[in-house]
Amino acid sequence: MSMFEIQKNYTMKLFNYIIGLGLVTLLSSSSVFAQTDIINVGVRMQKASGLYWENGLDFEYSNKSILNDKLFFGFSYISSRLGTAINSNAIKQDNYILSARYYTRKDKQLRPFSKFNIGYFSADYGSEIFDVLDNTSVLASLEFGLSYTFIKKLKLFSSFGYNFISGDGMNGPGTLYPIFIQSTISWNLKS
Amino acid sequence: MKKLFTLLTLVCITACSDQPLIEDSYLDSDLTMAASIYLPEDYLISYANPNPTELESVKPVFIACHGYSATTFEWDEFKVWSEETDSYYISQVLLGGHGSNYEDFRASSWRDWQMSIIEEYERLVIAGYTNINFVASSTSCPLILELLATDFFNNHLAPKNIMLIDPMVIPSDKTLPLIGLIGPMLGYIDSGNTTDEDEYWYHFRPQETLQELYAISKIARKALEDGIKLPSDCSLKVYKSIQDPTTDPVGAVLIYNGIKTAQNSPIDVEMIDSDLHVYTRLNLRATISEKDISNQLNTFTDFIERTN
């Protein structure tokens, strides 16, 4: 492994750590938020059609004054490191996603939603031999799905998604697939 | 997104089609057949020389295996390039279900495709050949990876070298995993081959065979995720075009990460500066460059050096 790769891995781990620490600090400090703020935190499980499970964390924020509880903004980190690559030789890849989710059917138990994601994808190929291949990409995807509220604070989101940018053998990371399904179990921390 | 729309449009247009219109000149027809079916002695060493002398039995034999919907034609150039030498043999295997007609192809499974490789290997071993090597392109690669993953060679004489060209582990067309869903509506896919290519490749690709193609590539990928160890005294090298419209170059990463030698060392990988799928076959290409010719020559030379 080259010095550049070691430095890159170290930077990515530090970045993940800072984001995690920042979010935990932010969420545990309730005084930061206004009375009308809504905070959800959850676990996201995503499966690319024909490839890996990539799992991770999901955070969502909204304010009751924004479109009357219909628009949420979020951040997700999902990785094959927490999915197929556990105890296997699958490629370790990370997705950093910023999202905007729009709901319909306010106050109903079952709510359809659409979600737009943008973000950054990075795959670790593990050897300099593969430096000639693309291993990073911008992410841009759309999701359509349903959310279901089990109890007041616990929700399940399931959706079908399409990545507008994916690898096609000529360009882009080869393990970035276009079609995916995902489920997120989310807990309402503040509402 | 464009690809998905094209696919969905294709589904809508061909949803009611059953049989393709097969012209007599197509390999798919009953009138055209790969020569290796009726002249096996011209292609298979086990037929051409079933009783080798002691000197002949230790010469390297390359079992050359082609890709999905292709024929032995894919390795003809290696044979022509090797014509001047008698220091090694090339045995060109025709995969099961290939080279005959559309219905035979449609009825074949990946196990049928693989069986031709196993049969030639076993015939060579029984005949007494001891220096057996594989050169495999595209879909033949996962067929051989499956043999490694299931320890087939533990009960047989192990091959000395396995050389994989543009292996099909991850398809470039990422809609292939949907073939089980949309395949039955499609029926078949028109390859768009040229007239010259129609003599050596099937023009129509039955959806059943595309499902088999996806199945064997998935089996190989899963096996690589779990890890494969090579038999003793066996080496493996991957040669991969860095741009490939058929098999994604990232497949080379999966093979590199997934296979170790018997001594737990990494395997060899060479990334080739090419945008051709199976860059070792240049015949019938619309255009070829000096670089393509050089890539082919270097790889053929490397095959020979690895067996010395």
Could you explain how this protein is built, in words?
The complex is a heterodimer of chains A (191) and B (308). Chain A contains 1 helix and 8 strands. With 191 residues, chain A is mainly β. Chain A has a single domain, classed as Porin. The radius of gyration of chain A is 18 Å and the shape is elongated. The termini of chain A are far apart. Chain B is an alpha/beta fold and 308 residues long. Chain B has one domain: 3-Layer(aba) Sandwich (Rossmann fold), CATH 3.40.50. In chain B, the strands form 3 sheets. A 6-stranded parallel sheet of chain B has the order 2-1-3-4-8-10, with helices on both faces. A two-stranded antiparallel sheet of chain B has the order 5-6. The longest helix of chain B is centred in the C-terminal third of the chain and has 20 residues. The chains are: A mainly beta (191), B alpha/beta (308). At the A-B interface, loops of A face α10 and α11 of B.
